[in-house]
Write a structure and sequence with these properties.
Layout lengths: L15 H8 L16 H14 L9 H6 L5 H8 L1 H7 L5 H19 L5
Length: 118
């Protein structure tokens, strides 16, 4: 896929089928939604632990943890990267910032679960 910024999707040499055969299970995304402090992280981490004990490969993308790095708010970025950078790339909690937070996490989850660009 090419666009005006010349960004190209690169097919992976290790296919989804190859990963699933190696891991002996199919890949998927389970996304917990709900109000703040409703137990999403607790449930996700409990499930992660249970699946790990069954030798199932997992990754937890906890919303708060993602907000500490990948989707940090402007205040968290300002000290290390400056005000302009923080304003441009930091995500607060406005409706549009929450939408971008979800879009970014979804894109990252897609990379984890599949090697085929949809």
């Amino acid at each position: 896929m090419n666009n005006d910024t010349n960004v190209t999707w690169h097919e992976h040499r290790v296919s989804r089928d190859m990963r699933e055969a190696k891991n002996n299970h199919k890949g998927c995304v389970i996304w917990f939604t709900g109000l703040s402090s409703s137990g999403k992280s607790t449930i996700a981490n409990t499930l992660d632990h249970m699946l790990h004990q069954s030798n199932i490969q997992t990754v937890v993308l906890d919303g708060d943890n993602v907000r500490h790095g990948f989707n940090a708010d402007p205040g968290m970025l300002q000290d290390t990267h400056g005000k302009e950078f923080a304003k441009r790339f930091g995500l607060g909690f406005s409706a549009i910032d929450r939408e971008e937070n979800i879009r970014r996490i979804g894109a990252l989850a897609e990379i984890f679960v599949t090697t085929q660009h949809v």
